[in-house]
Each structure stands twice: as structure tokens, then as C-alpha cells.
Amino acid sequence: MPARMSESFILQTYPFREADLVVSFFTRDQGKLRGVARRARRPKSSFGSGLERLSHATVSYYQKENRELVSLNSCDLLQSQFALASNYEASIALDYLAEVTEQLLPPNETNERHFRLLIAVLESLRSGGNVWTAVTYFSLWAVRLAGLLPELRVSSDSRDLVEEMFVTPIQQLTARAWTKQTGADVRRALNRLIEEQVERKLRTVIILEGL
What we know:
Structural class: alpha+beta
């Protein structure tokens, strides 16, 4: 079977056997997949830094019939998040984006709008955007795209913020003095909805709220 190449975001990796990794990755054309990257844990692995969390990469892989896990051949990096990972607050935001995407999206279902959401939010963070803006915008749109968004019972200021986020790209939002308290009631409501949907607690929420 010929290899498939997909533009992807790396969500999570897990040690497997002596030198391999199980990789969860979100592709633009096939949705969320899991596969094995053989020898990826060795020092001179051909995968390099392409399997770091939320790396934007072209992943080459193939899948045999009746096999849940695909086999990864290569991972060519398009955009690293290394600079963000060196900042603690931004690093926790990356963890949150990856965890919500991993938990909320079903496998093998294409979701172009969620893929573009990740691109936009990561671009905002790399250009110096506020972490709380990014997390709030991402969680709002992730829940909306998943079809889970009810009428939010939040403050009038937060309601105005939500309405603006619905119609304005993240990098064109009205300038605000964002703090942890800005939109906090929105994030609490959205995280509850996500946790109810996936039937588990999001581990990154506690860390985020501890910042």
C-alpha cells in the first residue's frame, strides 16, 4: 500500500516497546489518527523534533487493513512551537490546546475548521498574543465547532467578548488589558461542557488556572 502524506499537528506521544513511540496526530485530510513511529526514541532518529507537541508537520504513513494503528515513515517539520515551549505560560497553553483536541475530536473524521482554528491560535501565540486570549478563543470555537455550545450564562462583559469572538479573527480582536480574570467565567463554562462531553477531567485546566 502506498504511503499517504498528510499535513498534521502532533498531539501526543507515548513510549512503546524499547525504542518506538505511539503518536496521536491530527491530519487535515483524515482527521485524528494514531500510529507507531519506529525507532523514534533513538538519539539519531530520522523523526528529529518533528514529533514534539503541536509540531505542524507533513507526516508520511501507511495503514494496513484491519489495523488500528498506522505506521509512520517520516515527519517533515513545517512549523515548530519550540519558542513557545520555552515560555511556561505559553507551554501550558500548548498543552491545553493539544489535550482538548485529543479528547474532543473523534478519530478518523476530517475537521478542516478545527485544523484552521489551531493554525490561527498558534500564529497568534507566536506573534506575542496573550495566553488568556488564545485559550478563551480556542475553547469557545472548539466547543462551538463540536456542536456543544448552549446559551452561556456569563457576565455582560464576557457576553460582549463572546459575541466579538464569534465574528472576529483572533488577531483582529479589540485590544484589551487581558488578565487571568478576563473571560474567566466563559472558560469555566466551556471547560465544564468539554469535560461532560469526554467524561473525564482535563488535566491542563487545573494547571492553567494555577498560573
